[in-house]
């Protein structure tokens, strides 16, 4: 049996457009955003951790390791990827999957599709209704061997996920439009309302949040 890669949910941002609230813990469809995300992620990966800053107690009910950014100053998702790489290395893994904590509709074949790219690094890509190609670099697979270069890039002030993709030679993996939309992310209250509407229209079942 092929071993499953570990995965880290990146939820270390400051969520300014949501008033600083944890987007992953927002209510959605009778559960929370992260419950929907975990429902899609479990079974695709091995061990799961969450990258988050501040008091880790607010995540205690998930039963997951909480990994703070390894560099100060909230430098963005690149720091979350570095936390994921450090943790994956400690797990003895050679690659790690990362997903954004505000993406409740993760495709059920997400990790399999990335692994099929036959590249050490791969990231999700979709096409908008108007034909615009959109990269989702936070939702990707990364080699642990990238750790040193990423740490150096962060120390040098690099913050762009696209620069990380270039550095890693990440291959884009295209996912077709679907309902619910893959990699839809929640940044605002309006986005949260749209996600609720998508669940209602799609008839996706309500997910019960895990017990403490």
UniProtKB/TrEMBL annotation:
Its EC number is 2.7.7.77. CDD domains: MobA. Mg(2+) binds at residue 102. Residues 7-166 form the MobA-like NTP transferase domain. SUPFAM superfamilies: Nucleotide-diphospho-sugar transferases (SSF53448). It catalyses: Mo-molybdopterin + GTP + H(+) = Mo-molybdopterin guanine dinucleotide + diphosphate. Keywords: Cytoplasm, GTP-binding, Magnesium, Metal-binding, Molybdenum cofactor biosynthesis, Nucleotide-binding, Nucleotidyltransferase, Transferase. Its cofactor is Mg(2+). It is found in: Cytoplasm. It is an enzyme of class 2 (transferase). NCBIfam families: molyb_mobA. Monomer. PANTHER family: MOLYBDENUM COFACTOR GUANYLYLTRANSFERASE. Belongs to the MobA family. Transfers a GMP moiety from GTP to Mo-molybdopterin (Mo-MPT) cofactor (Moco or molybdenum cofactor) to form Mo-molybdopterin guanine dinucleotide (Mo-MGD) cofactor. The N-terminal domain determines nucleotide recognition and specific binding, while the C-terminal domain determines the specific binding to the target protein. This is Molybdenum cofactor guanylyltransferase.
């Amino acid at each position: 049996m092929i071993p499953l890669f570990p995965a880290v949910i990146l939820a270390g941002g400051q969520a300014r457009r949501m008033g600083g609230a944890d987007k992953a813990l927002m209510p959605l469809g009778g559960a929370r955003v992260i419950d929907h995300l975990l429902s899609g992620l479990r079974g695709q990966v091995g061990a799961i951790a969450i990258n988050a800053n501040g008091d880790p107690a607010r995540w205690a009910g998930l039963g997951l390791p909480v990994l703070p950014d390894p560099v100060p100053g909230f430098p963005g998702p690149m720091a979350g990827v570095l936390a994921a790489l450090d943790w994956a290395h400690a797990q003895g893994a050679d690659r790690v999957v990362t997903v954004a904590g505000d993406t409740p509709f993760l495709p059920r074949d997400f990790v399999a599709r990335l692994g099929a790219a036959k590249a050490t690094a791969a990231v999700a890509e979709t096409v908008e209704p108007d034909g615009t190609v959109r990269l989702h670099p936070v939702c990707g697979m990364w080699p642990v061997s990238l750790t040193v270069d990423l740490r150096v890039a962060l120390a040098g002030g690099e913050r762009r996920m696209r620069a990380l993709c270039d550095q890693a030679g990440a291959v884009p993996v295209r996912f077709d439009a679907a309902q619910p939309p893959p990699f839809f992310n929640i940044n605002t209250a309006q986005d949260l309302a749209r996600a609720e509407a998508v669940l209602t229209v799609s008839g996706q079942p309500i997910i019960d949040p895990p017990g403490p």
